[in-house]
Each structure stands twice: as C-alpha cells, then as structure tokens.
Amino acid sequence: MSATAVHSLWTTTAAEGIDKIQAPKIEYAQLAPVLIVLGAAVVGILLEAFVPRKGRYYAQLFLSVVALAAAFAAVVALAANGYGSTKAHLAAMGAIAVDGPALFLQGVIILTAIVAVFTFAERRLDPVSHGNRIDSFAAQGASVPGSESEKAAVKAGFTTTEVFPIALFAVAGMLVFPAANDLLTLFIALEVFSLPLYLLCALARRKRLMSQEAAVKYFLLGAFSSAFLLFGIALLYGYAGSVTYARIAAVVDGSVATVDPVLADTMGNDALLLIGGAMILMGLLFKVGAVPFHMWTPDVYQGAPTPVTGFMAAATKVAAFGALLRLLYVVLPGLRWDYRPVMFGVAIATMVFGAIVAITQTDIKRLLAYSSIAHAGFILAGVIAMTDEGISSVLFYLAAYSFVTVGAFAVVTLVRDAGGEATHLSKWAGLGRRSPLVAAVFAVFLLAFAGIPLTSGFSGKFAVFKAAADGGAGSLVVVGVISSAIAAFFYVRVIVLMFFSEPKADGPTVAVPSPLTMTTIGVGVVVTLVLGLAPQYFLDLASQAGVFVR
Amino acid sequence: MSFPLLTATAAVPAIGAIVTAAVPAARRTGAKWIALAFSLATLVLAAIALVRFEPGGDRYQLTESHAWISDFGVRYELGVDGIGVALMALTALLIPFIILAGWHDADPLETKSSRWRPTQGFFALILMVEAMVILSFEATDVFLFYILFEAMLIPVYFLIGGFGDRAHAGGDEAGATQRSYAAVKFLLYNLAGGLIMLAAVIGLFVQAGTFSLAEIAEARANGTLDMSTGMERWLFLGFFFAFAVKAPLWPVHTWLPNAMGEATAPVAVLITAVVDKVGTFAMLRFCLQLFPEASKWATPVVLVLALISIVYGALLAVGQRDIKRLIAYASISHFGFIIMGIFAMTSQGQSGATLYMINHGISTAALLLVAGFLISRRGSRLISDYGGVQKVAPVLAGTFLIGGLATLSLPGLAPFVSEFLVLVGTFSVYPVIGIIATVGIVLAALYVLVLYQRTMTGPVNESVRSMPDLKLRELAVVTPLIALLLFLGVYPKPLTDIVNPAVEHTMSDVQKTDPKPEVEAAP
C-alpha cells in the first residue's frame, strides 16, 4: 500500500463514503416514549446544576411525573395508531421493535415508575430533622457514613434530589430493554438501566452501610452477569454473523445459506449457538432473579431504600421478562427443544426454592424478595409455554404483579420505629389492632401474592398456569400449585402476625403518609381488585399485544 | 330479562357485609341489627327461590348466564338443581340463627382504640361467608365455583383466628396462640386442597375447552369430549382431594377439631353446618358429574375412607373431654355417612346423603348452639366442669338433649330419615360396608348420652349452681331449629320431592341404576 493510498483515505474516499454510509433513519415519533424519558432525565441533571437547592425537589418531582405521563401518553398514542398490532415494525434501522409486547410492557413500566416516583418523593414519614422534611435517601451520597461531613449535610438539610433523574435514566433503559431487537441494543439498554439502579441502591438514608453493601453486591454480580451476556453476544455473532434478532433467527432456522467469508470458520457452528444462547439467557435470568442466579435478590432488596426496592422489584422484572420473551420467541424458537428442558429445570427450581426459603425469613423485605423469586418461577412457567397465550399470560402477570409489588413495598415504608422502617417481622405483631386499615391493605397485597381468587394474583397465576398446561408443561403446573401452597404459608403467617397477635408495647407506629404514597398504595389496591374481579379488558389488551414483530 | 333471583340471594348478604362493616364503631348494636336484617332478607329471597323451583322441571332452573372472563372461557353461570336449592335454603335459614346466637360474641372486652371494630367485622364476615357459600351452591361454571370455594376460606379464617372462644383453659395468651394455630391449620389444609384442585381445574379446561357444566355434559354426551381414562382419574383425584379436605374426610380431617374447638360456637356452626357442606355438595355435583368413570373407579377406596371416618370419628368423640371437640368428631363421623351415601351410587344413598347434609346442618346447629350457650355461662369447654345442669337450667338441658338425640338419629327426628336412607342405599350394594357403618350409630348413642349424662344429670356441680336458664334471644334461636327437626323427622316429603329428581339426574350421569330388589313385591 503506497502513501498515496493513505492519502486517498483522507481525501477521495470521503466522497465514496457519502454513497456508502447513509444517515440512519430514525422514526422519532415511534421512539417518543424512550426519548421523552431520556430527555427529561438530561433536563433533570441540568436542573440539579442550575436550580437553587430549595426548589429542586419540586422541580424534579414535577419534571419526572410530567415526563412519565407524557411518555405514557406517547405509548397510548402509538398503540391507538395500530403500532401494537397491524403497524408493528422495527424502528431505528431494525434496532428497536415497536410492537404489541413492547408497547404493553413500556406502558406497564411507565405506570409502575409513576407510582414508584411518588414513593421516592415521600417526605412525611420521618420526623422533621433540623427544620427540613426528609425523604428515604441519604442527605449526600458522597459523604462517608457516620462522618462529620454526613452530619453537616444532614444539618444543612441536603437532599439527594438526583434520584429523580437517575430513576428516569433507569426507566429509559427499561423501556428499551424489552423492545431491543438486536443484541447490542439489548446490552446497552441493560447497562443503561442497571447502572442507575446500582446507584439508587446505595442511597438509603438509614442503615447506609447496609445499603452500600447491597449496592456493591448488586454491582459486582450485575457486572458479572453483564459479562456473561456480552460474551454470549460475541459467540452468537460468531455463529450468525449478525447481532440482529431477525438475522440470527434466520440462521438458526437454516433459511440463510450465505456464509460471511470473514466468519467462515464459525458460522453455523452449533456449539457457538448453544453456548452463546445459554450465556445470554443467564444474563437475563440474573435480572429476573431466577434460581440459580438469584443470590443478589434478598440482600439487595433488603439493603436498598424501600421505595427503590419496590421500583426495582416491579419494573426490572417487567423489563427483563420482556427481553427474555423476545429472545426466546423471536431469536431462539428454532432451539426450543434444546433449551426447554433447561428452562423447565430453572422454573421448577425457582418456584420451589423461592417458596421454601421464604418460610424461614424474619425480615419483611427479605421475605418479599424470596417471594419475588417464587413469582419469577411462576412467570417462567408461562414463558416456557411457547404459545401466543404464553406471551399474553406473561404480559398480564407482569402488569398484575408490578402494581402489587410497588404497593406492598410502599406499605413497608409506613411501618416505622425510632430506627426507621421496622422491617423485622416480630415488630409487625398486632398491627391489625393498631392500624386496621394499613394492615388490611397489606393483607390484600399478601393475598394477591398468594394468588387467592378475586385478586389480581389469582388471575395472573391462572393465566400463566393455563398457558403452561396448554403448552404441554403440565408438570410445571403441578409444581407451581404445590409451591403456591408452600408460599401461602408465609403470606398467611404475616397475616396471622398482624391480626391475631397481641401488639407489643414498644411496637412500631404507622406513619401517616402524604397523598403521594397514599396514591401509590391506593392505585395498588384498586389494580389488585380490578384485575381480580374483572380482568377481561386487560386480558384482551394483553392478548392483542401478544404478537412479536420479527 | 327476568329478575336475577339467584344473584340476588348472594348479592344481598354481600351488600349486607359491606354495609355492616361500614357502621361506625360506636353503633355496635345497630350493626348487629343490620346484619340480622340482611340475613333475613336473604332468607326471604331463598324461600322465594325454593317456591319458584319446580321439582319436576328442568335440571337447572332459575338460570342466569353472563359473559365474564372470556379469555379464560369463564362465564358467570348460575342455576340450581334440587340439591343446590335445598342447600342454599339451608344456608339462608341457618345464618340468622348464627347471627342471633353470636349476638354478644364479638363485643369488645374493653373499649380500646376507636378504630378497632370487632363487632362490625364479625357480622360482616359472617354475611360474606354466606354470600360466597350461597353463590357456590348456585354456580354451574367450574371456574366460578372454584373461585368461591377458595375465596370463602379468607373470611372463615378471620372468623376463627380473630374471634376465638373466650372460654379457654389456659387464659387469654394461650387461647390466642391456639386460636391462630387453628386458623392457620384450617387455611393451609384447605388452601393446599384448593391449589391441587386448581391444577385439576386447569387440566379440565385443557381437556374440555370450557368451564360450563352444561357444555361439558353435552360434549360428553355427543362424544366430542374424549378424555383418556388416566387423565380423567388424575383430574378426579385433584377435585376429590380438595372436597375431601373441605368435607372433611379421614385422613385429611384434622383441621376440623382444632377449628371448631377454638372458634366461637356460632362460627363453629358456620364451618361445620354451612361451609363444609360445599365440600360434600361439590362431590355430588362436580366429581360425579364431570368424572363418572373415575368416580366409579374410586368408589371402593372412597367408601372405605368414609367408613373409617364414621367409626374413627365416633370413637374419638367418645373419648373427648372438650364439648366442642366432641361435636367436631361427631361431625366427622356424620360426614363419613354423607360421603358414603354419595359414593354408594344408589338413589336412596344419594337422596339420603343430600337430606343428611340438610339435617346435619340443622341438628348440629341446634346442639352446638345450645352447647355454646352452656359454655358461655360457665366459661369452660371441659365436660368435667359441668354436672346436674338440668336441675338449675331445665330448658337448656332439654334443648341440649333434643339436639343430642337428633345427632344420634333418633327415629322421629329428621336425621333418622337420612341416616336410614344412606344405610339402606349402601347396604343394597355393599352389604359389608353397610353393616360396619351401623357401628357408627351405636357409638353415636354412646357419645351423645354420656355427654348428656355427665353434664346435665347427677349432683349439681358447684360452679353451675347459679347458672341462668335460656334467655329469650337464645330460645328464639333454638326453638325454630327443634321445630324443624321434628317436622322433617315426621314429614320429610317436601324435601325429598325437591331432592329426588336431582338425584336421578346424578345417577344417570354416572349411568348407575338401583339394584333390583331380591324379593319381588307381592302382586
């Protein structure tokens, strides 16, 4: 190669490049939900820099709620225009799918995020300190726990209002995650929503060391699983010569005969496909909290500030199951017979393990964490069905579950003693005598978790089990009902504690929340009952949405 | 569109529950009257349904059908056959007595915080149970029935755990512990049974593609529903297990003595006379109708289990020291008779079983409610704490005796008719089992009469010397029940007229006919 050739790179090929590289065509309107949330997150960061400290809380809360509401409106508008069904297609050069499942899950994530943001913004639970109302987050994340600087920050009334833009970033990532239609977008979305969550976990105002430990654990294990996912992506690229879902699916089907000359050695090598596919599944199962990738769940749920736990438990699960569904139904349907036995094992282990270990828990947040593991197992039973009904039942379950979860964790924030939230179960004894309403509401959530009829939990459970039975996974249904029976034990135990035990003299008090948390809890109860009594409309919605675009 | 009578019979108590629960804390007595009024209104509606029901007419009458959750293939379908309407009427009949008998059971011991409203909760829960039980007798959609079957556990659970018997030997603390143990045991047993049934419900849907009893029967008749023998048996077992827990049948009966012992007497009546009937009713309606072949296949085992229940329950009743637990074990023995009658698969056996459900409801209510009055006077459930009560409270002792005699199926009282029918029905096809089952009758005489002798006769125990006799409210509870026992004992025809056609339908479902009598009737 001569020097002129190098020169020509700089000079002449520029003209050629204009023909070759075309500007990507981005359908901004169809990506509006994501773009609105991301834009609001960026504006939120700017607010943090330029708005005086006093006004930040209100500005951030207003911005977040308006942005999320606008994003939801955008989702509804897209769905109303038929993008959920007839006009479903791939936007942004095939990187992001705009189809029924994506829009449904984005809607669920946004609504969950709105009610979760309300709990983030709650400032009436703790007593006023140094003349300032305080929320669940550390006064200053950067100050060392117990140090002078922390005390100074508390005294000065600092609040970490950056949680709002951070949460918005996480929401944006979650919106992309179930819609991602190539593996790189999937990975980027994963990181975009994971990194803010790691941060949020570390920001508890009380028990800061525990909170930071939770964040470090979550970060390390999360990074580990990301590495698996990335490695899996590389292997699948080696197998298919592409990272787009449609192309990989085509290669798996054998409908693509052409071999990329650069990848001649690896393309079509089934070992790469199987190992790569397994690694990507691992990455997703980690986010879902399925056994044996569940280890982070209890510690992180316990350590994180409770509003964050509620948000994370609900929204992460929705996003991750969305991505899992798309991967299994769009990319790997040709591999069904290879991964189905493994997924069977994972689902069974998840249901049984979650239910059994939850029995021994003494901390309400850890208990809910293990219960979320068991629920991940139930949802996996629907995922494995591999039918249209499987998709719609999982969508419905996720919608039902997320509102119960956010509501339940919101109730947990209310029960407090001198040390903050009283999460030890023994302190909940006799709560039903002291605050019948709060206890009754929590009992409704527990009954929904347990899947008692007339609650949303039952409708969801019935939908996934029916789909699983239809899809030939009857054994999963049997294991599912048995672990439901086991799980019922610990939900009932909490109800017994609340209603049938005598209140302790030094027991916790129930804080009277602001309308924000009340809204969160109220929405949770209403959704739980409506989806339990009259789920038809939402089942229709889910089944209309249950078709992936390829 | 005609007036939805069946929906109304369930909606009225449900609305009553909400209204009662909403009564302010200070207006306790008002809440009681409201609950009583709603339960009486339900009784009126049930009576209208009973009158409008034509025994010779269609199998399911007063039907209603509305779309509900079409994605699950679920419809809100109601309809009653003779068995359903009779049990619905029994439920509606007993609830006012239960409310009246429990008038003071949930009065708060001291005025605690104003937001704790146990009285309102107690009566609201009772009405809630009534609504669910009535609707479950009317549901002709398997899914709708399942939902109610499961959901009714929750209010019963709170009734057991939240409003226990105050007459507890170990004091309040031990009482609370045992109470919550009993409540949890009740819930877990029944929930486990229910969840197993859920798997079978889903399996049934996968097989049949519908939850409607009528559609499944039609598909079975024209051969489009082709269930393999093995699948039918598994599904039968799933359903039967849940109903056996609820009924309760040995060996899944152990929750009942705890629950009945710890609950207040009216709640114990609610459990054994009303809620448990859903289990035996469902065996007739769902097990036999949906899975006739499997039911016949399982008959020998079920009959043996029923027989064990009869003898074992009666034996344990003889050995009890606690009045309420004694009645609980007696009930287990009686449920054995009911299940035996159902699975003997003769028309006498099944009519007997249906009558037995109703008569057992009335007789147990009479006995247990009087026992409750007795216990609340002395503050103890132990038999040994009583003696000579008939000298100080003759009316109480007399009504207790009649309730007891009904329990041991004395001829002339209603339970005799049904027990006789069950035994005849069983004997005609399974003579050995029929013969052994009569042991249960002998033992019943033993436990009832010994109970009466120890508590009511003999020297007057010091602690009962100042025991008052039955008050007007208590008499208002007991008298009508006893009158009904006598009436149905002498003239059971109205009841059998309603029940018999339904039994014929069930018999034709399982394609069984009664054995021919060995001795031809004289020409």
UniProtKB/TrEMBL annotation, chain A:
One Pfam family cited in the UniProt record for this chain: Proton_antipo_M
Primary role: NDH-1 shuttles electrons from NADH, via FMN and iron-sulfur (Fe-S) centers, to quinones in the respiratory chain. The immediate electron acceptor for the enzyme in this species is believed to be a menaquinone. Couples the redox reaction to proton translocation (for every two electrons transferred, four hydrogen ions are translocated across the cytoplasmic membrane), and thus conserves the redox energy in a proton gradient.
Organism: Streptomyces camponoticapitis
Assigned keywords, A-Z: Cell membrane, Membrane, NAD, Quinone, Translocase, Transmembrane, Transmembrane helix, Transport
Keyword check for Transmembrane: yes
UniProt protein name: NADH-quinone oxidoreductase subunit N
Subcellular location: Cell membrane; Endomembrane system; Membrane
Family recorded in the similarity comment: Belongs to the complex I subunit 2 family.
Class of enzymatic activity (EC top level): translocase
Subunit structure of this chain's protein: NDH-1 is composed of 14 different subunits. Subunits NuoA, H, J, K, L, M, N constitute the membrane sector of the complex.
Domain NADH:quinone oxidoreductase/Mrp antiporter transmembrane: 180-486
InterPro entries: NADH-Q_OxRdtase_suN/2, ND/Mrp_TM
Lipid bilayer topology: Multi-pass membrane protein
The reaction(s) this protein catalyses: a quinone + NADH + 5 H(+)(in) = a quinol + NAD(+) + 4 H(+)(out)
Enzyme Commission number(s): 7.1.1.-
Transmembrane domains' residue ranges: 31-51, 58-83, 103-121, 156-177, 183-204, 216-239, 245-264, 271-296, 308-329, 341-361, 367-387, 394-415, 435-455, 476-500, 512-534
From TrEMBL, chain B:
Domain NADH:quinone oxidoreductase/Mrp antiporter transmembrane: 139-443
Entry membrane topology: Multi-pass membrane protein
Family affiliation: Belongs to the complex I subunit 4 family.
Transmembrane residue ranges: 6-26, 33-53, 82-101, 121-137, 143-165, 186-214, 234-256, 268-291, 297-319, 326-345, 357-375, 395-417, 429-452, 472-491
Places the protein is found: Endomembrane system; Membrane
Pfam families with a match to the protein in the record: Proton_antipo_M
Main location: membrane
Keywords annotated in UniProt: Membrane, Transmembrane, Transmembrane helix
Superkingdom as given in the UniProt entry: Bacteria
Protein name: NADH-quinone oxidoreductase subunit M
